User: What shape does this take?
Amino acid sequence: MSEFEPTIVAFVCNWCTYTAADLAGTARMVQSPNVRLIRMMCTGMVDPKYVIKALLSGADAVLVSGCHPGDCHYINGNYKARRRIKLLTEILTGFGFDERRLKLTWVGASEGNEFAETVNKMVEDIKELGPGEATAIEVM
Amino acid sequence: MSNRIGVYVCHCGTNIHPKVNSPEVAGFSEDLQNVVVGRDYKFMCSDPGQDMIIRDIQELGLDRVVVASCSPRLHEKTFQNACLRAGLNPFLFQMTCIREHCSWVTEDSEEATCKAKHLVAAAVNRVNYHDELYSRMEKVHPDVLVVGAGIAGIQAALDIAKAGHKVHLVEKAPSIGGHMAQFDKTFPTLDCAACISTPKMVAVAQEPNINLMTWAEVEQVSGFVGNYQAVIKQKPRYVDMVKCTGCGLCLEKCPTKVPSEFEEGMGLRRAIYRNSPQSVPNKPVIDATVCRTLNGKKCGVCEKFCPSGAIDYEQQEQTLTVDIGTIVLATGFDTMDPTPMKQYGFGRFDNVLTGLQFERLNNAVGPTGGKIVKKDGTPPDSVAVIHCVGSRDKNHHEYCSRVCCMYALKYDHLIKDKVGHHVKVYNFYIDLRCFGKGYEEFLTRVQEEGVTFIRGRPAEITDKARTPEEEGKLVVVSEDTLLGQTVRVPVDMAILCTAMEPRPDAPEVARRFGISQGLDKFFLEEHPKLGPVSTATDGVFLAGTCQGPKDIPDAVSHASGAAAQALALAARGEVAISPTTSWINPDICIGCKACIGLCAYSAIEFDDRLRVSVVNEAMCKGCGSCAAHCPSGAAQVKHFTEKAIFTELAGMLAPVPEAPITVEDHAESPMAEAGPQESVPPAAETEETATAS
Assistant: This one.
């Protein structure tokens, strides 16, 4: 296999996107195996450090996905995530990362198909983009 | 001393293995740091599977357990309990999903196995940093809140009240009964809706354990399972419920007439009104938007005539707070407004009716006193019943509304029965779905009564006649898909069997109670098959059509299910609360107070003496807003600590040693097939040796 196979880490919230991923699985919606899920209770729990650590440890991209705005199981955790991810994207691009390497999406608990599409689309995008910029850094 | 970890990889019959080579993954795990034993088994969740874990914990002295199988949402509790039975703290356990997220969705077996290895490595890494945690027991308030008093809400409230628990039953409308109170007959038995629902409504009013609040809405809900507080808004009725005797004199004297919502716009009501003489409670309410007196005009007729002096124009809105342990939502459905479907001419043609309008036409206390007549007062000679209006339609609702076939058949029968057997009845259907008890038999009966069934969805209803027979009639234009030709059927009346849809305020209600909506916008249950009444929020249950279209028997059984779930919590009196709350390390906290502003539950307080923030664990839900922001890293969510996540990441991203097959072999499929089998013997050996020891 000569084609570049990216590694994507997904931080997903337990109540919406993780459930959607389960649903996509139950419905046997074929997905690229490149995305690996880390279950969080809420996207508001995703410390920007986790994203940076993932990118520096060899992930080619990071997906953060949770409940739709207004649907947060914890009232407003996803709004906090949205602010943090926005800011983090600016910082990462400042350091030379392509902004497409960090993606924030809302996938509700019943949207299994949406999850499968998001995953497959992201894998396609990152394949096009090539390996992560951080793999060249030896520091970590 | 280093940890002793046991890794258990499930086959799930054939669901995981052979797509993911479970023995290979188990063998791989044994090479990971601190892993003492890695096993695979056909059904890890079965008793022998759990016993295997328990035995290993006791005999091999495991102090950490990882299970790679289905989604933790399914069996996390099962395995945590197994750990507990073996004397291991259930939080020293980690489950990783290699079924829903791996074997079921990955096409290539090689890739699936590789992904499973990454996931297992991540779980093993993470479990090293798990701490012993202990669930906190909280008291469950014995009272239950039931929202909505349609047939589902009534059933749930009565079930709970009969068990001896107090129920607060809140209804938005001025009286209870919901949609069922509008019906005349019910399918397939044709017993009258009022005859079977009125006794239940009266039972609600007389039940000492039910605190019935009509003309009221739940404004706000706070708290957590077992300890909710609901703020209920009691709208002003302008009628003193104690003084009013329900004599109904005011209803006759009121000079203001407006179209009645209960009669689906077919009849008029006064500004002071009640839905029907059988309403529970049977005391009227004044519609403040149209009442002359309340709008500053001269009137006061009701006050003048009221023999008991019950009219009170000065009544104000009241709010009250109730403490409850659990909540049952039974907020019901709405029928779709067919006006946007211009082809059917609803609103344009007088004799195109919705299903609910036809129900009222049939009802003895309805606008026509139970006579099926056209707008001009004469009985129809031919009627078209159009199924699936807005249901099974990509432009409106993709789902089937489940009740329309049956109520359409009921209408067929009622028309034949009430107007006469000479009346021609045409059903335009896609499929006839008569799935319930006695439903198919009812279909046979209606077919034998001489009703015509035309398979096709009508293109339009028009009044443009092409032949003398069509003159002055409504013409239903449709394809008869069984004949394969277009038909034009002239009729006097057309009934649109409109779809059941979620209430327009469903998003707002979902937010208020912390639950979600599905793609169809009905409230989402915890599991489509095995958790149809519970929701993602502990202690909030669904009853009836707010969860999806249902007929009366289904709504009633669903409601009884919800009542049983609420009672299970209320009767036990205590509930285990997850200990995965936030914790702020006082040695690290710099007292910046950033977390206090972020906390959505006001669970963080500032200790002025120590100059640090402190989490109130009773209020913290463990969302992690504070932990993700804390600039000093003092705030951490238990079980989701920075260490645990970092190591999980490291495990997930570490390169996985290639299985016994080399990359070159990989390219040729026969060798790739042989590859996984080679790995079986070593894994089987370890299993044998381990069992022997």
Remarks:
- The first strand of chain A starts at residue 8 and ends at 13.
- Chain A has one domain: 8-136.
- Chain A touches chain B through 52 residues (CB under 8 Å).
